[in-house]
User: Fold these one by one.
Assistant:
Number 1:
Amino acid sequence: MQATVQPFFDPVTWTWTYVVHAGSGTACAIVDPVLDYDPKSGRTRTDSAQQVVDYVRAQSLSVKWILETHAHADHLSAAIWLRDQLGGRIGIGNRIPGVQGVFKQIFHLEPEFATDGSQFDHLFADDEAFAIGDLQARVLSVPGHTPACVAYQVGDAVFVGDTLFPPDVGTARCDFPGGSAQTLYRSVRKLLALPGATRLFVCHDYPPTDRAPRCETSVAEQRAHNIHIHEGITEDAFVAMRTKRDAGLQMPTLILPAIQVNIRAGHMPPPEANGVSYLKIPINAL
Ligand SMILES: [Fe+2]
């Protein structure tokens, strides 16, 4: 069955959110939803997520899943807010406990913070099959950008998370804790072994000024044209390029707030005695 994919672009964090379904009145999944966050004021807004709610309601869709490809470092997740509005179960890859453990230490989180992934409704194993109504879906483990990254295949559409970007932008960075350029190379080769016509939907685009952001590419296009990892690029060459490039990248603007919220599936930290939630800034720790 052909999946219908509705993209939503957040120009603040360059993130693509998706709703995937089989037509009006059917079941759907939401992939990588964005919670708007202003780092200057510490205020959240739900303008981006509301667009998803409006679409789901206009199409009379029933939300079965809210899928995270990984614990994002560039935007906060709206998964919890959307679950409250629309229902559904929040899923992420089953290696997320490792990521939670690393960042529990970095942020010196409260002792009660569980590092077993229990903040999420479901932890997906590699190759796990699941259903979105009549749409058949499966999970592809694609570590490298983070050790817990997964992609979601729904029919002929694959939501690749932070692995591949559009061909002229290349690939995701691999310098976060637990990241590995060598591992990302192998994950991308796994994606590019899918049939050439497979539609790939990226989590981000950082377009040059002469084109609009795009969300969809294909296995064949990536094999032929991805500037970092097209067919013929060896693992050693990719790792050398990626390592050099990552050494010159700044941290994402929202990495500190984003990680603290996203390893909690989109929950804010527990409020303090005055009822306010606080995010931490570790000094010289990241
Ligand atoms: Fe990411």
Note: The longest strand covers residues 4-10.
Number 2:
Amino acid sequence: MKTIAVAFTGASGLPYGLRLVECLIGAGITVHLLYSQAAQIVARQEMDFTLPGRAADAQTELTARFNATAGQLKVHGLQEWFAPLASGSNPPDAYVICPCTMGTLAKIAAGMADDLITRAADVVLKEGRKLIIVPRETPFSIIHLENMLRLARAGAVILPPNPGFYQHPASVSDMIDFVVARILDQLQVPHQLVPRWGAE
Ligand SMILES: Cc1cc2nc3c(=O)[nH]c(=O)nc-3n(C[C@H](O)[C@H](O)[C@H](O)COP(=O)(O)O)c2cc1C
């Protein structure tokens, strides 16, 4: 896989999304990044991290943060309808929404494509590319569960951020890597974030 899109929405769990982008960049993949306004609020609240209001500023800052090569990380504004993600003629190989709010989940399940985050999901589903949704809420209501079922039936992978404890995580970073490892496996991106069960 060469081009992967990632969206951060305003659910708790931005550390998963940032670590995912770091790993994808480290693996030499071109990443298209989107984030909602609510994701900016959550970034400040849970990570003391500022996601800039302007996509161009975010691209500069995150390219430096992740040591990406020139052009490897492209950040798009939510009304940037000329971005490749907006069209079925140029979809990414896969798209991960991490973390995904119940609001964004509901919009995608209903076929609403009113910004680039939801339009890109619509495009990826209709073009038969991989859509991975990392939903975060607890508990789930019947509405949330039905929306997830609808998306799974449409071909999306529903991958909740549920770290396992059987590998004895020693830190929050270990728990984040557990979830990111499962996402990278879905994307068939090689990694060594956590030991594999049963491996010597
Ligand atoms: C600190 C914080 C944490 C939030 N956590 C969640 C969450 O885990 N799941 C969720 O569905 N919404 C959560 N929300 C609410 C969403 O951000 C809100 O519904 C927002 O409108 C979602 O917009 P978006 O889907 O465009 O990002 C949280 C909001 C804040 C400020």
Note: The helical segments are 14-26, 37-47, 55-65, 102-109, 116-126, 142-153, 172-187.
